[in-house]
Amino acid sequence: MTTYFAHSENDLGARNPLKVHLEGVAGRARRFAEVFGSGEGAYLAGLLHDLGKYGELFQRRLEGKENGLDAGGVD
Known about the structure:
The chain is built from 3 helices and no strands. By secondary structure, the chain is an all-alpha fold. It has a domain at 18-62.
């Protein structure tokens, strides 16, 4: 099973798995939005906000094997 990451290593050398990142953002978004009745929509938006990071191009960029994110290679 492939592990996808949300960002490059932090100062401590840790990498945040994308699934953990998205679930954390979704949960926080839900809590903030519940006060005005939009918790579920905010949760969904939190899950989807970095969905493109599941792409191989982005993951290679995190590894330093790509520059930019454009499928055409234009920075």
